[in-house]
């Protein structure tokens, strides 16, 4: 008997994780307590950003009242918020509406 190979089975295309799982935003809020160089330092330490990017977000916090720092899964966003709060910054997690 001749051997035949089975035909490939078509599987539904898997959506990227970002499409299936809603994103969560890490938002840092302005406060009257922390100095701008300190906030820049915290952003560098928590996110591993270079000074220019950290300063850009720090200025946005200072001038606009808040800055969206990153978009992550809920677990990662929550971990970042806890880190920022550990440095006495006001930060929250918000569901990405976009």
* Number of domain units: 1
- Rg, rounded, reads 21 Å
Q: Biggest sheet, strands in spatial order?
A: 2-1-3
**How widely separated are the two ends?**
58 Å
Q: Roughly what percent helix?
A: 40-55%
CATH topology: Ribosomal Protein L30, Chain: A
CATH H level, superfamily name: Ribosomal protein L7/L12, C-terminal domain/Adaptor protein ClpS
Pick out the low-confidence regions.
Answer: none
Strand proportion: 15-25%
CATH architecture: 2-Layer Sandwich
Q: What is the H-and-E element order?
A: HEHHEHE
CATH class identity: Alpha Beta
Major β-sheet, in short? 3 strands, antiparallel
Gross geometry: elongated
What structural category characterises the helix and strand content? Answer: alpha+beta
> What's the rounded overall pLDDT mean?
88
The number of distinct helices, counting runs of at least 4 residues, comes to 4
Q: How many beta-strand elements? A: 3
Short characterization:
The protein is α+β, with helices and mostly antiparallel strands and 98 residues long.
Architecture overview:
The chain has 98 residues and is an alpha+beta fold. The chain has one domain: Ribosomal protein L7/L12, C-terminal domain/Adaptor protein ClpS (Ribosomal Protein L30, Chain: A, 2-Layer Sandwich), CATH 3.30.1390.10. The chain is 44% helix and 19% strand. The protein has a 3-stranded antiparallel beta sheet. Helix 2 packs across helix 3. The model has no long low-confidence stretch (mean pLDDT 88).
């Amino acid at each position: 008997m001749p051997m035949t190979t089975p035909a490939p089975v078509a599987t539904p295309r898997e959506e990227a994780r970002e499409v299936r799982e809603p994103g969560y935003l890490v938002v840092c809020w302005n406060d009257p307590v922390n100095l701008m160089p300190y906030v820049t330092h915290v952003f560098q330490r928590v996110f591993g950003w270079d000074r220019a990017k950290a300063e850009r977000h720090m200025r946005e916090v200072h001038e606009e009242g808040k800055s969206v720092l990153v978009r992550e899964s809920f677990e990662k966003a929550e971990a970042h918020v806890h880190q920022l709060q550990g440095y006495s910054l006001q930060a929250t997690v918000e569901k990405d509406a976009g």
